[in-house]
Every structure is written in C-alpha cells, then in structure tokens.
Records
---
Amino acid sequence: MRLISGRMRKVLKLEHVDAFYDRSQALDDVSIEVREGEFVTILGANGAGKTTIMKCIMGLLPPRNGRILFGGEDLTGRPAWVRTEMGMGYVPEGRRVFPDLTVEENLRMGGYNLKDHRALRRNLEWAYELFPRLKERRKQLARTMSGGEQQMLAIARALMIEPRLLLIDEISTGLMPILVNHSFNVIKDLHQRGITILLVEQNANKALKVADRGYVLEIGRITLQGTSRELRDNEEVVKAYLGS
Amino acid sequence: MILQQLINGIVIGSVYALIAMGATLVYGILKVLDIANAGAYAIGAYAGLFLYQATGSLPVAFLGAVLFTGLFGVLVQRVLYVPLLDKPPLVPLICSIGLFIFIQDLIRLLAGPHIRAFEAQLPFRGIELPYLSVNAIWIAIMATTAVLLVFLWYMLNRTKLGLAWKSTAQDLEIAKAMGVNVDRVVAFNFLLGYGFAAAAGIMIGMLYNSVFPTMGDMPAYKMLAIIVLGGLGNPLGTVVAGLLIGVVETLVAGYVGFFLPRDAIAFVVLIVILLVRPQGLLGQRT
C-alpha cells in the first residue's frame, strides 16, 4: 500500500451542495472531501442521491447552491468537458460504454483530451495490460460484450487520462456475484497503485472492505461519516446496510 | 434505355441522399426531426442563384451559398433547438415545422412568389452517345454529390471529430463527461447538415432550371421517407435509401407507369420496406 504522508492535500471538496431535478430536491447541504491517495466511499440505498452527487461533481447536473472544488479550483458552473482535462476519470452508473464503437474507440474516447499522442498510446497499452481481455476484443463493438467486460471497459476508459481522481458510480449493479467480487478487486488494486478513488455504492459490505473512509447518504443528506472501521462498527449502519 | 433510366435514377437518388443527410445528421445527434432542413434547401437555392447572378462564377456561388446556409443552421441551433432540447420531442418538432413555414414565407416576401430561372453555364459538355445521353448538369451533380458524401464518410470514420460525433450521437451525456465539447460538435453538425441541404437545393434548382419559395415542400416529405427508411440517424443508410428511392421512382415511372403521382412512390416503397424491416434498411433493433 502506498504511504500516505501526514499532510494530505485535498483533491475534491463539495461545500454545502444542493441539487434539484426540477422542483424535487435530490441533494440537501452535502459536504464531502477526498484527499490525495484516499479511497472514499459514499453509501446509500436506491434513490438516496448517490448518482446525483456524481453528476454534480462531473458537471452533468449543476448544483443550485454550494461549491465544488477540484485541486483547489472552483468547478461550479463550468461545463462537463473540462473535467477530464483536469484529471477526473468517470465510471458512470450502468457502465454506459459507447455501444456502437469498438473497444479501442471507446478507450480513445476516454483519452479524448490527451494532447500528446504518445501518452495516448502508452495509456492504451497500460489499459490492455490491466485488462488483457479488452486487448483480445479491441476490434469488437462494445455492445457485443458481456456486462462484466463492459464494466472493465468503462473502468479502462476512465483510466485513459491517468486520472488524479477516479469517480466510480456503482460498480456492483447488474453484475453476477462473481463479477462483483472481481470488480471490487480491480478497484482495490487500482487504489494500491496510488489512484485516488471516490466510489458511490449500494453494497456497503463490500465497499467498506476496500475503502479507507466513508459517508452515509440518506434521502439527499449526509447522515454519518467516519473511517471504514468506524462505520462497520456503527450499529445504525449495520442495521440499515450490512444486515445482521 | 435501362441504362439511361438507371443513370437518371442515380442522379435523382444522390440528390435525395444529400437532402436527407442534413436531417439525418441532426437526428443522429439531437434526436429531433428537423423539417426546417428543407427550408435550408430553398435558402441554399436562392443564395446560390443570387450569388451566381452577382458574381457569374458557379464555384463561388456554390461555396458561398453552402457556407451561408450552414451558418444559418448554426444560428438556428443556438437560438431555437438548444433551449428546447430538454422539452418533450414534440416541442422541437413543432418548432421545426414552424420555422420551415416561416422560411418559405420570408423568401416569398424578400424574393417574390414567382419562379426564377437558374440557368447555369457549365465549363464542360455532356456525354452524347447513340443510346445514352448524360448532360453536363447531371455530371456536375453526380460528381459534387460524390465528393460531398466521400468527405462526410472520411470525416465520420477517419477523424477524431468523427469519433466525437459518433460518441455524441450514441450518448451525449457521457461524451460530455469524456471531454467532448458537445456544443461545438452540435454546431458543426448543423453547419454540415444545412450546408448539405443548400448544396442539394442549388443542384436541383439548376437541374430543373427553377427556383421558387415552396421548392422545399417535396423534399420535406420525401426526406422523412428517406431517413426513416435509412434507419433514423444512420448516414450510410440515408445514402442507400436515397439511391434506392431515386432509382425505384425513375424505373417505376418510366416503365411500369403508376396510378399515383411520381412523388408518391417514395412512400409506397417506405411502407413496403417498413412492413418487412421496421427498423429501416440499416437501422439496428433496439
């Protein structure tokens, strides 16, 4: 595991974020932060607002109030497409690979903002090294791949920019249990290679095993936070999310 | 004779493909049926005619009119479609029909309701053989259409911009998240889409030697048949469907004769094919 220095810089900070879909409020005064090298998870049931947080961070849903800071820079109100250039890699809910592009084209889209051709080549090789399966299928249309393969592709696509922060929206939904385990192992491994990760996840049990720290999100509000161990030992969390 | 009819059909069909390409590109990205694209066809024809009369140069008139109409498309997209995109799809559709009617009446007001001749002097002659004649305008139309369609194919399949276009068409939100400046892709899309419609308008104006305010009516209907037949938003499908309808129309009208007007044939073809393949010729089942 990578050593984390005493003075950890904040990579991402949300300050008092409110978000709405039309008139219905989806996030209410959400403040979170992620420091360099950390693996942070946000736990919550369906409809708690997990995907909304991700959309706010990615600029796909502008928050009504509050600020979003990335590496100290205020991103609130800036368009989504500046995110990859600044180093945010995004693995969306439900994978959302481009169905009618090949595996390699999907990866190239992940590195769309890389100015340097060599960096693109190098990261492509890196992605294939991490997921040899994708290399075998590089000429295949993404729609023809299995759910698990698409999940790997979605992760690899986000890695193409060598992200400073990897945002993952639900790694476990729609996958067979064996693939869920595999996916968690993959992101644990990425974290051990030094990548900072923010994962929003329904599967609290698995998420708390891999994350350093966590937040609990309930109907748009952060109700609890702590280290993974603290959350695992918390009675409410155990009752609500871990089962007894 | 059959060769002659086939060539007629291909000339008409390639122009159909060009007319429908603008709407296909717009549908591909925005999922809006852009009827007003047929207005761009009339604008292009008028702009081309006036520029030709002013400059006497066909290339200048052609490029100038295409560029002018393309920029008009960018304006339409910024002012009309972007603000309506999060409304139900019927809203931009109605807006588009309104814009189409507006364009026709604006042309009538500015240029008058009468038919204007578009007599173009081409720098080369047609081909005259005993059983086959291909006049110069046909050759110009086929060559120009081929160049435009090859350019489009190259752009979509061999450039980074093309990759961005396809990604945006498949998942606009995720394309944004991957770093694509979607606003720019959409603007470029309208530049091309309206420019293509203008090119078709100029060529048809030259072909029939007439330009008039409602010349976009027939293309507006036929365009719909072609893009649905081609599999909604599929550029290659649009070319295939345009050629198919052009050839079938010409052959049926020339040989069989038909109890309905010639322009109805496109819709008969559409109905027959959709009964067999509801997703269109090259569309995918979703």
Note: Strands of chain B lie at 127-129, 132-134.
---
Amino acid sequence: MTAIHDFLTRAFYKCGSLVLFVLLWQLACSTGLAPETFVASPAVIVKTLWIYLWDGSLYKHSVISLSRAFTGFALATLVGVPLGFLLGGWFKSFERIIGPLLYFLAQFNPFALFSVFLLLFGIGEFSKVAMIFWVSIWPVLYNASLGIRSVDPAQVKVARSLGSSKFTLLWKIVIPSSAAYLFAGLRLSAGTAFFMLIPAEMMGASRGLGWLIINAQVNYLIPRLYAGTLVIVIFGFLIDYLFRFLEWRLVGWKRPEAALS
Amino acid sequence: MRAVKGFLGRHAIVIALLCLWELSSRLNWTDSSYLPPPSVVAETVFEMWNRVNLFMHLMVSLFRVLASLLLASALGILSARLLSGLLKGAYPWLESLFKVSALVNPYCLFPLFIVFFGPGEYAKIAVLSWVSFWPVFFNSYTAFKNVDPLLVKTARSMGASGASIFFQVTLPQSLPSVFNGIRVGVQMAFFILIAAEMTGAVAGLGWIVHSAGALNQVDRIYGAGLLIVLSGFFLNRFLNYLDRGLFFWKETDTPPNAADALERPVKPLSALKLSFIGFAVFLVMALGVYQLYRAEIMLNDPSVVPEYRIWTE
C-alpha cells in the first residue's frame, strides 16, 4: 500500500504540473477561452501528430534533421577532441599561439557567418552541416583541453616510470581521467548541434523539422506549428537525456569539478 | 608600449591570418568576389556607417537586448525569490514544467510568439526575454537556496525583518551567481537576436546581413557580419569586466566557457565608473527607443522598397 502511495506521490511531484498545464490548456481551448486561430488544443496537436506519423512525413523530416545534426556533431567530435587534446596537453606553446584565435572564433555569432557559409558553400546540405559543425565544435574542444589539463601529472609519471608505452598512457591514464570533462563537452555539443539545426533549416531548406515549422508559420497552419514544436521539444529532451544517461553510466564515478551545466 | 607589444604578441596568429587573407585576395589566389580582402571589408563598414545609418541599426539591436535583459532579470529574480521564500512548497512540484519550458528550442517559439504578439517589436522582446529568463531564474533560485543558513539565522536572531534579511544577507551573497545567470542570458539573447532580426525585422544588425544577402552584396555581408562578431565580442568583454569589477572578492575558479578563459587583473569598480555605466545603459535605452521610432517611420514610408530601404538613407 505504501509503495503505491509513494509511487503516486513521486509521480505527482515529477509531472503533476505538466499534466495540470496540459489539462488547463485543453480546457481553455474547449471552452473557447483561447482563440482557436492562435492556439491549437492538445487534442488537436496529438491528432495532427498521429496523421503525420502514419503518412510518413514525420519520419521523413525527423530522419533528415537528425542526420544533419548528427553529421555536424560527429565531425565536430572528430576534429574537436584530438585538437583539444593537442592544445591542452602536448603542445603548450602551440596553445599559446593559437589559443587566442580559437577563443575569439568561439565567440562568433553563427548567424553572422550563415550568409558567408551560404556564399561559400551554396545552399545545399553542406552549408547547414558546416554551420552545425561550427557551433558544436567549441564546447567539445574546450572541454577536451580542460580534461587533459586535469590529468594528474603524478599518475603520468608513475605510468612512465613503469615503462608504459605512449598508447597505454593515452588509453589507461589520459582518457579515463579526462573522460568526465569529455562527456560534459559532448553533451553540450550535442545539445548545441540540435539547437542550431532548427534555425539552419528555417533559413534555407526544403525538408526537416525546422522547415516544417517555418512553413507552418508562413502558411498559417497552427496545429502543424504546435505539433512541430512538440516534436522538436521531445527530440531535444531525448538527446539531453541520452547523453546524461551515458555520462552517468560511463563516468558517473568521476564528477568533474567544473563541469558545464 | 609594453601593452601594445603584449597585445601584438597575444594576437599574433589573428594578425597573421588577416595578412594572409588580404594577400590571398590581392594576389588572386582566391576569388575576391566571394572572399573580399579585410581592407575592403573595413572600408565597407565605414561606408555603411555613412550611408546606411549603421548607428540606428546598432542602437536598435542593443536596445532590444537591453530591454529584454532588464525584463528577464527583474522577472527571474522576483520569481526565484518567491519560489525560494513565500511559495517554497510549490517549486518541487513546478520543477518539471520549468525544466521542459527551458528546454524548448527558442527558434521554435519564435513563430509562436509572432502568432501571439504580431510581427512587431513585442514578439522579439518576448522571445529574447524568454530565452534570458531561464538562466537568470535557475541561477538565482539555486543561489537563494544555497545561502549560508547560519548567516540567515544570525540575522533573524538579531531581529532583522524578512526584507532586510533578503537585501542585506541573501542578495549580496548570491549576487555573483545571479550575475552569472544574467551573463549567460545576455549571450543567449544576443545569439538569438540576430536570428530573430534575420527572419523579419524593421531594423538591426541581423537585418543588415539578411538584406545584404538578399541583394547579393558580398562586401556588405562580410562587413555586417564583422560588426555582429565585434559587438558580440565587446559585449562579452564588457560583461567580463563588470563581473571582475563587481565581484572582485570572489575567488576565480575554472571559467564557465572558453570566452572567459582570458585572465584579466581584478580590481574593484569605483562608484564613479559604476554610475557612468548606469548612465550609459540609460542612454542606450533612450537612444534605442528613438531610433526604433525612426525605423518604424521608415518602414511605413510607402515610397521606399523594403529591401532597399536601409541602403537609401
């Protein structure tokens, strides 16, 4: 009995406000308090989503959007992690020279670059991926260099004096001790990549979730506008959750002192 | 002289890259119609200042950021205060709603806000405030929660009222954290401002880039892009300066992001400087309102084609 009671209490605290919010929203729409021309009721949104789910358009747009975000993110990881390791660890003087440039570039507003990317790369897939790459490389790069700086030099010395090879040093000492930072950086990057995907698609695309929304706005398809927003919220939540879960499973034993939230 | 030398030394790579860019355009290694040399870009900025009324666009953008920032920090601090004090019991219950709301991609919200507020100024300020509200709120809430209970108890046992406990104990102790929230909020707001201005605006820096792109004026794309980058950079610098000056007593730990990784000497801000900064903020707000009004008049002028409007000043 108490178990059920506990579960209900926890469920109430976990999502009671969300459920109440949705109920109030539905109520406002059904009673006509919220004008139908501006606000789609939750029931209508679910119905719209249901239709999109079965005619395959939801699948099509999600796949194209996710693949864009993933490509940008994967490229950023492939470039950012090694570069961050190099900057933070092996080449201290290299860091002193190139660091200011990178810190300056990290502050670039990506929208200022968007037109330039369009100019240089055309309006195809590449400019969108380039933009996502551009914004998602900085967290990963910075955290990788922080991570490598957090490696305990005593451990490195011990491993060296025990005669470990460079590869063992990297695999057994450097990567595990900087893993917490790396994962924090990867989570931030993945979030940023998905975050940036939407405006990139809004500004020039013919498919994808961002396009779905901007097209709904232009054509004043209110239920579709809300449905698209909901899908993006769900994907954003899932991506964040996935990375938090991975972080907890893989590096839960080591909490970074200054992990970025 | 030493300062100049130090600056040159630290930014050697930036300068070298700029020289390389200039050379590659001048020597026709790259197509200068796609990649104009930096000297041409700088010239374009000057030209825009004279002909396009750049000042107006800059002021309008700054005004939008500042107005939404003031709104968001007032609301954020107030609601954090309420939820950590008067409505203490409500927060655990509301948390999921807040977390989901903060997670919503602001670009998705932009069309929704336009539907609600119309395509005018209110939608933009609402989106920017929404974006910067969450960091301010979460940071202030955690800071208010984590105030040393011993200090609060001591103040209470000495007979301090609720308001004076808040203003003399809680707030001073949590201000650095609140300011951090504000800083993240400003950065996010500036980020999104440009996108908002690109998708439909009367004036502003984002609008210049968008319009230059629509007219295929390559020099101006680069010039306006440079301006956006520089204003973001200086905004960051300014906030950093303010942070260090206001909270000089705070121990510095690992900087929260790459932009703040540059170390700078810490010294307290004098009252004179602070009042000057306050006055500057007020001035920007006042000028921004006026310039916005001018931009609205220009928008409603039927004799000017919208896309060409900003170029014909």
Note: Confidence is low (pLDDT under 50) at residues 258-262 of chain B.
